[in-house]
């Protein structure tokens, strides 16, 4: 399985691009970064990486586009493909919501 991903330039490039993004990438951002001018190919790449468990999708409840982020399995796979140490995940402080102060009456 890992050999097939490593043999595919599109899958390897997309995995590396998602790994570099701290906030994750949307479909259009990934399409622009891949420079393949094919939304169908980008959709295929995303589906392949999600089905392998290398990336996950995060849906925004307020209408922003879906963003794709690396999973731990994806970090390990990219490390095995490139021979580089695993990419560090984004800091958890940026993902935790800030507490809301109580209203005074």
Instruction: Tell me the CATH superfamily.
Output: Winged helix-like DNA-binding domain superfamily/Winged helix DNA-binding domain
What does the average pLDDT come to? 82
CATH-derived architecture: Orthogonal Bundle
Tally of DSSP helical segments: 5
Main β sheet profile: 2 strands, antiparallel
Q: Using only CA atoms, what is the Rg?
A: 16 Å
In angstroms, what separates the terminal alpha carbons?
60 Å
List keywords for this structure.
single chain, 105 residues, mainly alpha, Arc Repressor Mutant, subunit A, 2 strands
Description:
The protein has 105 residues and is mainly alpha-helical. It has one domain (2-81): Orthogonal Bundle (Arc Repressor Mutant, subunit A), CATH 1.10.10.10. Helix content is 49%, strand content 8%. The chain contains five helices and two strands. Strands 1-2 form a two-stranded antiparallel ribbon. The chain is globular and about 60 Å long. The termini are far apart.
Topology:
Elements: H1 2-7, H2 9-20, H3 27-34, H4 39-52, E1 55-58, E2 67-70, H5 72-82
Antiparallel strand pairs: 1-2
Kindly summarize this structure in a few lines.
The chain is mainly alpha-helical. The chain is 49% helix and 8% strand.
């Amino acid at each position: 399985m890992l050999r097939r991903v490593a043999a595919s330039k599109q899958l390897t490039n997309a995995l590396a691009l998602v790994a570099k993004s701290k906030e994750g990438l949307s479909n259009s951002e990934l399409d622009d970064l891949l420079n393949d001018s094919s939304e169908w190919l980008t959709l295929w790449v995303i589906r392949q990486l999600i089905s392998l468990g290398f990336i996950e999708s995060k849906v925004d409840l307020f209408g922003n586009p879906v963003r794709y982020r690396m999973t731990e399995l994806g970090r390990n796979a990219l490390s095995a493909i490139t021979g580089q140490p695993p990419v560090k995940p984004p800091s958890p402080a940026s993902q935790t919501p800030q507490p809301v102060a109580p209203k005074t009456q």
